[in-house]
Design goal:
Structural class: alpha+beta
Number of helices: 9
CATH superfamily of the largest domain: Endonuclease/exonuclease/phosphatase
Oligomer: single chain
Number of strands: 30
Largest sheet: 7 strands, antiparallel
Distance between the termini: 82 Å
């Protein structure tokens, strides 16, 4: 028996429009990309927007009444999210301005209370998931995957929460579902007292994509007239134990110059003695064995811990070996200590190139002893580079490495000052992941600190152009790109730092 004719029968024109939509849907999907780049800059934020969502992430733009370091502070920053916009479920929180209560399902914490030291300083990040009855469950920040930039002291931040990381029977589906959420940010004193609170922000989110954001475009080729420099903190000589991942990254990137940090072992022997520094010759042998290139690798290093320069271009040592910085100790004495710094002159396609590879002091926050040391190291580095420019025919200076800017930005600014041929400053290359969505250069699945931007490459803008620049994060590449470049998705996880790559060309006069 034939069915009765439907009163909803579509016209030929309607069927044509449906067919066209089906054909266009894959194309539109392929063109879609994350709404916001996580880089600590705000030019891509629509005017007046504080919260956004796309199929891959939730985003928050956070303006604070004073400059703070989110990750190291005496106050806790608490981001409270009511994912289902349902006040009756989760942790009940009433905003100070009298707005309707939130039923908080997920809380993100920077410098959480449980991390405070004896001086009351909290550090790192954590999270809480709340059951329907408000019972909390502690989470490591890695279980949610959130990150905020900038890493250094600032009064404005952007926060990103992936929608495909959290594995929670109730909250995972909520994060991925289309819906409305409400967000409240508070800063808490050590006593738990609220010292500042944002207004409630409402977030509309589309349904999540099927998986994390990835691209299949792969690595850009180095232009013929450019010099490709790769900077890599290799996490205490990890390629010696497991050479294959780093070797594949080098084979794919094909750099002319590699700036290495932490290419030394640090495990002490039974008597507490540190191991000897690894020689330049041993590093060159590793490169010739695992990353063979057109010519044997040249390696230059000093006695400074972990730093070395490997090059396919001829190198000449410059400057002091090793470089020292001076730090006040009491009212009169000055202590001279070694800086993790090495410099060399390379003969390159863009002329004599003065290279400086640095690894500033880690840890601490703004105004901490570590921050003061970073400033002192930066002064010594800048003076050393000024002397090297005066003693050589180099016009182009490139400074790269692990700056560890978790306090103020002054160390980077001090290093860059006056090193452009015009008397101006070097600038930091804008370097994003190959997926184009993030500037975080460091992440550690074991650390209490969330993903951060610690690494930079500085160059002189009056005489050079960074024609390509990327963070070599294989996790953001699709299967096709990985296959074309001979890579595995986990290769970049060989270290806690991502390699930075920049192609420098001479600026046309």
């Amino acid at each position: 028996m034939l069915p009765e004719a439907s009163t909803n029968r579509r016209s030929p024109g309607t069927w044509a429009r449906i067919a066209l939509a089906c054909l266009l849907a894959p194309m539109l999907s392929a063109q879609a990309q994350p709404a916001i780049v996580l880089d600590g800059e705000f030019g891509d934020w629509p005017a007046g927007q504080q919260v956004l969502a796309d199929p891959w992430h939730l985003y928050l733009r956070l303006a604070l009444p004073e400059a703070v370091s989110l990750q190291t502070s005496t106050t806790t920053t608490e981001v409270l999210i009511d994912l289902d916009d349902e006040p009756a479920t989760g942790r009940q929180v009433t905003p100070a301005d009298g707005a309707a209560a939130l039923g908080v399902d997920l809380a993100l914490l920077f410098a959480p209370a449980e991390s405070r030291d004896d001086a009351g300083l909290g550090s790192g990040a954590a999270a809480r998931a709340y059951r329907r009855d408000g019972t909390p469950r502690r989470l490591r920040h890695q279980q949610v995957g959130f990150a905020a930039l900038p890493t250094h002291l600032a009064d404005e931040f952007e926060l990103r929460i992936p929608r495909h990381v959290l594995e929670d029977r109730r909250l995972g589906p909520l994060l991925r579902a289309e819906g409305t959420a409400r967000v409240l940010v508070r800063r808490l004193a050590a006593s738990g007292r609220v010292v500042w609170e944002s207004g409630v922000m409402t977030l509309s989110r589309p349904a999540a994509a099927a998986g994390p954001w990835q691209v299949d475009s792969g690595l850009p080729a180095r232009p013929a007239e450019a010099v490709r420099v790769l900077s890599a903190n290799v996490e205490w000589a990890s390629p010696l134990e497991n050479p294959a991942p780093f070797a594949r990254l080098l084979a794919a990137a094909q750099p002319d110059i590699v700036l290495l940090q932490e290419w030394d072992r640090i495990e002490r022997d039974a008597r507490g003695r540190p191991p000897p520094r690894l020689s330049a010759r041993s590093i060159a042998e590793w490169f010739d064995t695992h990353a063979p290139a057109e010519r044997p690798w040249e390696v230059h290093r000093t006695g400074a811990l972990g730093v070395a320069i490997a090059s396919q271009l001829p190198l000449t040592a410059v400057g002091e070996a090793p470089l020292a910085y001076r730090l006040a100790a009491g009212e009169e004495a000055l202590l001279a200590r070694s800086v993790r710094y090495v410099a060399a002159l390379a003969e390159s396609r863009i002329g004599p190139l003065l290279l400086a590879n640095i690894h500033l002091k880690c840890c601490g926050g703004a105004a901490s002893a570590e921050d003061l040391q970073r400033k002192a190291e930066a002064v010594s580095i800048n003076l050393a580079l000024r002397r090297a420019l005066a003693e050589t025919d180099a016009e182009v200076v490139l400074v790269g490495g692990d700056f560890n800017l978790v306090g103020v930005t002054a160390p980077r600014e001090i290093i860059a000052a006056g090193l452009d041929p015009t008397g101006g400053n070097l600038v930091a290359a804008r370097i994003l992941t190959l997926a184009g969505d993030s500037a975080t250069t460091w992440r550690d699945p074991r650390s209490r600190f969330p993903p951060s931007r610690l690494d930079y490459l500085l160059y002189p803008p009056s005489v050079t152009v960074a024609v390509n620049a990327f963070l070599f994060d294989t996790a953001g590449l699709g299967e096709g790109a990985l296959r074309r470049h001979g890579l595995a998705a986990g290769d970049a996880a060989y270290s806690d730092h991502l390699p930075l790559v920049v192609d420098l060309e001479r600026r046309q006069r």
